[in-house]
Amino acid sequence: MPAPPAPLTPSPSGRPGRVMLVDVDSCYAACERVFHPELEGVPLVVLSNNDGCVVARSSEAKALGIEMGVPWFKLKAWADRHGVVARSSNYELYGSISGRIMAILGEYTPAVEVYSIDEAFLRLPGSPAELTEMGRRIRRRVLHDLGVPVSVGIGATHTLAKLASHGAKHSPTLGHVADLDAYRPGQVDAILEATPVADLWGVGRRLDSRLASMGIRTARQLRDADPAVMRRRFNVTLARTILELRGTDCITIDDRDADRTGQIMFSRSFSTPVTDPTQMHQVLAIYAQQAATRLRHQHSVAAGLWVFASTSWYVSPVHQVSLAGRLPHPADDPVTIVKAACDLLLDRIEPGRRYVRAGISLLDLAPAGAQPMLDPFSPDPRLARLGALVDRVNAACGRGALGLGWAGITAPPDWQMRREMLSNRGTTHWAELATVTAT
């Protein structure tokens, strides 16, 4: 009979249990293989918008030395000779499978923090042996139900769980589950010593050179640094990372999101150049609606925006328009956003120019409802409800079922991105359901 679970152990932050990170292995490639098992074991790459560059690789593709960001047109002939298969980015499929993974994780604990499309933190009680077995159980369940492999890292803090997940992915003997609590202090020291500081969650390349100038090149050296000194020289987030490496649980994904979501960008390349202001108006209407939807999903409003459009950098002369401005009031509705974007950009669009890319970035974000409206000429309150209504209709009837103005077109325009190697969207489109043949 198994031993009962260990009692909840409060962390220094007052949150009980240990942190578990569940991370999908080569997420996009794994999702592509769900309905195409013939791709199992085949070098597989997923391409960016308009089938431009490699944005995801299977382990087999990585083993061949294929690098992230390499343009597909440069790689294609070589890939054909080496049996590499390419797929267009199928975000509908990836998002749908991600939602199913998160639903499964929610069956094990209500304390699930979704960090990205392929990562989620869980908080669970138990001994190292019990949590390791729980990680293996979760891995088997996701693989059985969805056909997607995951790795599991466990630690006292989010940072240590992230570090353990890296080991789980890259150490075959661990069986894709690693718990740092199962190691002796000397072993943990060796792991931290072997980890470049740039590989730590929340540090990255942007601080690597500055830390190296102080003689800090490994995770162990950062752990042993003075948090007060590092806070003065860098920021409070790095000081918290030091405490997390020491086992003090003091970072949540909300802290990381504060660093990541200072703006919301929606930008795409066009499959066919846009050549006149009317077409660009259509582009801005669609992009504004997409950006506003993201804004509402994180319960924020924007006070400013930046818009741009450019011709190809490979065709001379290059023409780029880039302008920033303020919204008339903090808003999350697409009507306000698209009007401000068009007011900034359309007068600068030169008919006949072949624009190949455009984008909208929403700036100066704040929590929705946090700032009271002081302007006596307050905006029409129906605009705020309009965006939410569009979201609900599209959620119920499918993306693109309802749009505002130019964003409500019924047929895709010529300039929308090219995805010539798109796999079937078997979980979101009736016409693309997988066909099963019995023999």
Automatic annotation (TrEMBL):
<dbReference type="GO" id="GO:0005829">
    <property type="term" value="C:cytosol"/>
</dbReference>
<keyword id="KW-0239">DNA-directed DNA polymerase</keyword>
<dbReference type="Pfam" id="PF13438">
    <property type="entry name" value="DUF4113"/>
</dbReference>
<keyword id="KW-0742">SOS response</keyword>
<dbReference type="InterPro" id="IPR025188">
    <property type="entry name" value="DUF4113"/>
</dbReference>
<dbReference type="InterPro" id="IPR043128">
    <property type="entry name" value="Rev_trsase/Diguanyl_cyclase"/>
</dbReference>
<dbReference type="Pfam" id="PF00817">
    <property type="entry name" value="IMS"/>
</dbReference>
<dbReference type="GO" id="GO:0003887">
    <property type="term" value="F:DNA-directed DNA polymerase activity"/>
</dbReference>
<dbReference type="GO" id="GO:0009432">
    <property type="term" value="P:SOS response"/>
</dbReference>
<dbReference type="InterPro" id="IPR043502">
    <property type="entry name" value="DNA/RNA_pol_sf"/>
</dbReference>
<dbReference type="InterPro" id="IPR017961">
    <property type="entry name" value="DNA_pol_Y-fam_little_finger"/>
</dbReference>
<comment type="similarity">
    <text>Belongs to the DNA polymerase type-Y family.</text>
</comment>
<comment type="function">
    <text>Poorly processive, error-prone DNA polymerase involved in untargeted mutagenesis. Copies undamaged DNA at stalled replication forks, which arise in vivo from mismatched or misaligned primer ends. These misaligned primers can be extended by PolIV. Exhibits no 3'-5' exonuclease (proofreading) activity. May be involved in translesional synthesis, in conjunction with the beta clamp from PolIII.</text>
</comment>
<keyword id="KW-0227">DNA damage</keyword>
<dbReference type="GO" id="GO:0006281">
    <property type="term" value="P:DNA repair"/>
</dbReference>
<protein>
    <submittedName>
        <fullName>DNA-directed DNA polymerase</fullName>
        <ecNumber>2.7.7.7</ecNumber>
    </submittedName>
</protein>
<dbReference type="Pfam" id="PF11799">
    <property type="entry name" value="IMS_C"/>
</dbReference>
<feature type="domain" description="UmuC">
    <location>
        <begin position="19"/>
        <end position="204"/>
    </location>
</feature>
<dbReference type="InterPro" id="IPR050116">
    <property type="entry name" value="DNA_polymerase-Y"/>
</dbReference>
<keyword id="KW-0548">Nucleotidyltransferase</keyword>
<dbReference type="InterPro" id="IPR001126">
    <property type="entry name" value="UmuC"/>
</dbReference>
<keyword id="KW-0741">SOS mutagenesis</keyword>
<dbReference type="GO" id="GO:0003684">
    <property type="term" value="F:damaged DNA binding"/>
</dbReference>
<keyword id="KW-0234">DNA repair</keyword>
<dbReference type="GO" id="GO:0042276">
    <property type="term" value="P:error-prone translesion synthesis"/>
</dbReference>
<keyword id="KW-0808">Transferase</keyword>
